[in-house]
Structures are given as C-alpha cells and as structure tokens.
Amino acid sequence: MSESSEQVLLADLTWTGMRFDRDVAVHVNSSGVITRVAPATDDDRRRATRLASRALLPGMVYAHSHAFQRALRGRPERFDAGQGNFWTWRDTMYRLVDELTADSLYEISRRCFAEMLRAGVTSVGEFHYVHHVGDSDWVFDGAVLAAARDAGIRLRLIQCYYATGGVGKPLVGAQRRFDGVSLDEFARQLERLHAALDPATQSLAVAAHSIRAAAIDDVARLYETSRAMDVPFHIHVEEQRQEVVDCVAAYGARPLRLMLDRLPIDARFTAIHCTHSDPGDLRELVSRGGGVCLCPSTEGNLADGVPEVEVMRASDARVAIGSDCNLRLCMCEDLRWLEYAQRLTRETSGNVVDTEGRGAPALFELATVHGAASLHLNAGSIAPGRFADFFTIDLNHPSLAGVDAEGLMHAFVFGCGNGPVDQVGVGGVVTGAASRR
Ligand SMILES: [Zn+2]
Question: Among all residues, which ones are annotated catalytic?
C-alpha cells in the first residue's frame, strides 16, 4: 500500500469507543478499511483531510429495516374503529404492498436509504420479504439491491422466507407477494442474489419472517442454510401476544422456547423485537450467543408493548437497534425511546448504562457495535481492521452550543435530532449526504 493511496482523517474530536479524544489521526487504505488510529504526528497533520469543528464518530447501524414501509409516512393514521393496533396497521401496510411496482419500490427504498445516510446511519440490515411483482419473479429483490447501491449505504440484504399467512394458514391477498415459493427455489434465489451483489458494500443474510409465516421445520432448515453460508439469521419473535397464543396452540410452546428447543442457536441468531418474551427464554437465548434487535420507534407506533430490557442488560445481551417501519429515521430518537419507555414503566432511570454507569455511551454502543455484530459486519467502531464507515457532527450546531467533549455524547443522544450530522462516509468514501449543505 503506497502512502498516496491512503487517506488520513483528522477531526477535532474522535469517538474511540469510550470517549472523545482530541487530535486523533485515522488512517484509511484504498480498500476503505481503517489501518491505524493514533495521536496525530506532524506528517499526519500535513497530509490529513481536516474535519475542523467536527467530531468523528463510527457510522451507526440500523440492523432491521423494511425500506418499502417508508412510503407509509404521510398517510394519515385513521382509527375508524375508534382505536388501532398492530393488526389494523398491518392492513394499511398490505394495501401499500398491493400498490408497489419495481420502479416505485426502487424509489421508495433509495429515498429511505439516502435518508438513513443523512442521519449518520451507514449500514442497514434490510429484512426483505416483498419479493414478487407477478408470479414468483423475485423482481423486487433486484430493486432493493440497486436502491442501496445507488444511495451508497452498506447493505446486509436479509433475504426473508415467508410461506404462511398465520400459523398453518395459506397466503392470501398481498401476502402472495411475499411467497418464499419453496425452500429449494428460495435457495436458488439466494445463489442468484449472491452473484448480483456489489462485493464492496453488499452481502446476504437469511431470515424466516416469523413463526406466523413459516413452519418450525422450515425455520430449522433455513437456520441450517444460514450456517452453511456462514451468514446471520434473523427472525421476528414475539412482537405480538397473538403470535404467542397461536404458537402455543399449534406447537405447545412459545415461539422463542420452540426455537431454542429446535435450533442450534448461536451468535448468528438475532431475534427481532422480543416484546413479550419470557425472561428465562431471553436469558437462554443470550447464554447461547443469540442477540436481540429492538425497534423502539416502531414498537411505539404500532402499540406493540415494552420489552424486558432489564433482563437483556443483566444477561449482557447483544441489543441492536432497528428502524423497522421507517416512519421516523433518527437514531438518537430511537435510543431515547428505548430508555424513556423503561423509565416510564419502571420509574427508574439509567436502564441502559456502561461499566462506568454512563447512559449515552452505552446507548450509542447499541447503535454501533451491537448493530454491526448483529449483521456480522466489520463496522461499528473507529478501529484498525474496521470499515471506514463514519459520520461527523458539527460542533458549532446550535443543539450542541455550550457542550464540552466530556458531555458531547450525552448531548448528542439526549439533546439532538439529525441536525448536527454533517459528513457521512461509507468505506472511506464520503457520500452525497455531505454535499446537501
Ligand atoms: Zn420488522
């Protein structure tokens, strides 16, 4: 590697994992990987791209997204029956699914990913289950890959299998666009997608939608597929009480218990939501290396309920953050929703803290390190060997006026929206997001 192909980033402050350090040089090679993080030398200062009045932070990770649902934003929430819930929201979402074309899905997804980048999110786990325009054509899969590539975000396409419209029920209506067809055809489509990826920024993972949408035998086989491919495996788990009731009726066990009994769960497993999970099941999930992904804004909007964050934290769980329905794309807001929902229901603060008892750095770790771990991406921290995925925040932004380095992460997480987010880089390449000013 010649020095000329290496870039050096030098911000006023750099988040090095536990705190903001001053005058740190971040060396990035031509492959977009960080090679060195160290106090700046005179030579670094001569060559560096100066990020003046900026703090440099690792790009954040939304580990669970359905990009197409971004198109529900702006549709008025109507509660014709007086009140709504997850199931009435799902009817609205199904109407959107019926309207989608390949072009509209591309546009919606590109807009969604571009908005994530502007919010400092550089990687997304796109839990993708809307596959077909017509009859088993998988046309929507290519549209999502193209949208992510054109937006410039790092993508883990979590290709999702969907086969039943409820435990043991056939697919109906809009659900036919989700059809996994068969496990063999689903595997062939994974191979076709693998060949279509942009290897620099795109990779695959495997999902079963939920125990509502796939029989446990199929879930087990899909988990084997993810092990054979050595990629992550994600599944919605216990977001709704009705899912638990239906699963107990069909299998005699709750969804997470059933999977713990039937799957060789390890670090590739991420359970999305776990809103109504049994504490003992959660502890076993974590002890076997599995993790959770919470989607606080969506869980609030869909009236899901409040998860057992205390159990997750006490068992040192990997807890990633998802944007899920993408009604709002602001990681700080998601992190606050996570903490504040616990404060409101438990009447205690400091529900997510690090080893020093600090809240904001611990929450930011969920948004970065834990998200990257859920997607098995070499991202989430500014450290040698990691992708140079980053964002900067403008230290002169009014939301941060009067804040010092010590208080900056607290001010960012608890006091900001997306306003201070400035440049955004994926693999060392600053994206179009930075040129919006
Ligand atoms: Zn979801």
Answer: 273, 324
